[in-house]
Write a structure and sequence with these properties.
The chain is built from 13 helices and no strands. The longest helix is centred in the N-terminal third of the chain and has 19 residues. The two termini are 32 Å apart.
Length: 223
Amino acid sequence: MRMKQVTALLACVLLTACASGPPVPDWKMTAQSSLERFESAYLSGDARVEQAEFERARAQVGSTGKFELIARVELLRCAARVASLALDACPGFEQLRSDAGEADRAYADYLLGKVQPGQIALLPEAQRAPAAAASDTAAADAVAAIREPLSRLVAAGVLLRANRATPALLDTAVATASDQGWRRPLLAWLGVQRLRLEQAGQLDAAQRIARRMDVVEKSGKPL
C-alpha cells in the first residue's frame, strides 16, 4: 500500500486495515485516506486540497490523544516538504518532540540535517545508506538505489540541506519527480539545477531548464 511505502514510520501508525482481526476504527480509515490525498495534493502543488486533507488527517489521529501518532503524521508532512526542498524547521513535530519516541526524534533530526551516527540505525531502512555514506558520491549512489520515489526524494533533500548534493544527485531527484509527475518537487529541483548552471556560466543549459520549468508551471494552471 502506498502510504506504507512513504516511510517505515507510518507502519507504526497502523493506518491500514488488516485482512483478519477486529474491525478497523473509523479514525484510522479516514486518516489513511486523508493522508494519501494530502500527499498527492502536496506533491502536485494543490495547496487548498493539501491543507484541508492534512488538517482532517491530523484531527482524526488527534482524537486518539496519542502524541506518538500525531508526531508521525507531522513527520510525514515534514518529509514531503524536504522532498520538495521546503526546508523549514518542521515546527509541527517540534511542538511534540518531548513526547515523541526515540526513532521519531532521530528521523526528525535526519530531516533537519542533524542526525548523529548513533541515530542512523533508528532511521527508516531506505534512509540509512545515504545517511551513513562517507562521501558525497557514495551518498548520491545510495539515493539512486532507493526504490520508493518519495523516499528517494526525501534522501536527496536531506543531502542538499547538508550541502552534499552532487550533479548526479540533482539528476536523480529531477528524474524521480518528473517520472512521477510531481510538479512541486520537480520545480524545486529544476530550480537548483538552473541556479548551479548559471553560477557555472552555462547559460544555454540554464535557459533550457528555465523553459522546462515554464512548461511545468503552466501544466498546473486551469485550462
